[in-house]
Amino acid sequence: MWPTSGYAYATSNCNDINVKPSIAAGGGFNFVPVRTCFYPTSGSSYCNAYRDITVGTWGLAATDVKDGTRFIVQFQFSTKGSIAY
Question: Quick check: 51 and 70 in contact, CB under 8 A?
Answer without folding.
Answer: no
